[in-house]
Write the structure tokens for this entry.
Amino acid sequence: MENKLIIAKEAPPLSRSALRFALYFYLKSRNTLMVIFACEAAQAACTIMLPYAIKEIIDAVILANTTGADIFDASKDALILFAVLNLGIVLFSRASGAALVMTGPFLRTEIRKSLFSYLQHHSHRYFVSHFAGSLASRIAEVATSCMHALWTITFDFYPLIIKSVVALILLFTASSDLALVLSLWLAVYIYVSFLLAKKCRSYAQDFAAARSLVTGKIVDSVTNVMNAKMFARRKYEEAYLTDYLNEEVSQAKRTFWYMEKLRWFQYTAAMVLMVGMVGYALKIWSEGNLTVGEFSMVAGLAIMLIEAARGLSRSFLEFFEYLGNISDGVGVFVQSHDIVDSEEAVDLRVVKGQITFSNVTFIYQEGLKVFEQLDVTIPSKQQVGLVGFSGSGKSTFVNLMLRLFEPQSGRILIDGQNILEVTQDSLRESISMIPQDPQLFHRSLMENIRYGRLEASDEEVIEAAKKAHAHDFILQTEKQYDSLVGERGVKLSGGQRQRIAIARAILKNAPILILDEATSALDSVTEKKIQQGLDNLMKGRTVVVVAHRLSTIAHMDRILVFDEGKVIEDGNHKALLQIDGHYARLWNMQAGGFLPEQQT
């Protein structure tokens, strides 16, 4: 029984079962698929009846030779049947192909779009635990495998069923003994092949996981190629990747050798039956119980069916390989969403921007306790700095405010509204975040800035860039605002990326602003210019600044000093220095203007 998943209400209702997952998408094109199935059934029937038409032609020719009648007159009806069957094969196959063109790209797109949509609702914790490249690889592989599994059913399994039924009916008209032998062989052969191929699913799933892991490792290495160059680690990276490639090779050999063993069984069984059927038919013919035409039909039907059944070995193996790929993918993607909006969630309405942490307790899944009954209130439009050594709780405080994590107990309120009772989108629309290491899309500079407010005009984007002191360097790029920034913004310097992030936040114009040492990547001249823009941005807003360089928050209305998940000091810069406590020691031990990682 499938475990009950907690799924965000805007996410597609995907199943963790590979078959139910695929069926969810197949039903979206049920009408077109019914047309394909009907055409394939008709095509299969026409194909398997060709030996019958040939039998009619042979018998008519022999009869004409015996009676002296005109051969073409005697075989006219059989020739017409033969022509109609061939025409049917052409028309039905092309009709099926046209329907396939109509539904194939649509279904593949639907699967990829739905997986991406489901992925978007996963929490921050999920994404830090998975390779981005591996996730992208799995989306493509699941979509492709779903389509190949469908085509295997439609163009391999289903036609074989139709061919078998029609062939056995025709065989029974010629020889019930031959029909009985073939039907028993088909039943045993297909059943054994199914059981053997089913075991291949677990092998294929492990192989798919190995492939995705290798893809993730390659993307990770390519993303960090400058590290490899700077540390002269090219050979190390090659050796590191080789270990994972060897594991992929090992999984591939394990899978393919099992497939090869199965093929030995199927090809041997098909060979024995083919020789046996023709020999048995020859015996019955020699006894006068089959006409020449019937013998030809029996031999033709047996060869066609056995060839189709032998091809079934490949189809079974591929089908279960596709199911293994799907199982691997949905096992990674289709997990419960850690953080979901409640059914009664409403949009957050920020009028003042007051932030309240009330008796908040938070423990990471790994068991690390950060906060225990934390109480903090940040009044409307107050500018607050957060300081403390690494691991003291500053980043967790911000992440909880953004609802990237949820507390085990207590409440976090914005203007009296519990953030667990509002939609995540409305919460994050109300907060602008400028991180220390901003992430940009591989899109144009205009698109990256406009991401702050999608409906903004070009003029508004340019004005935001000017306030962030980004306009001048943008004009110096090759295509100016249409210039692409590269993956994660690699074509820009750290300071340039920071200015784009600041422009984006200026354009967003949210009532609450979070800064994570937003000017740390800038030179002193640019920092001074941008600080003026940030000061203008901070006016009239509730501001929370995570400080690594204490001088940047000395002018704040208030400073919260964190230590081991507790606020041990609270006041402005001057007051905290006067009490000569923890903050004063941090201020005095700054090296080069930055706070050390931990107390020495």
Observations:
- The chain is about 60% helix and 10% strand.
- The beta strands are 355-363, 369-378, 383-387, 409-414, 417-418, 431-434, 512-516, 542-546, 558-563, 566-571.
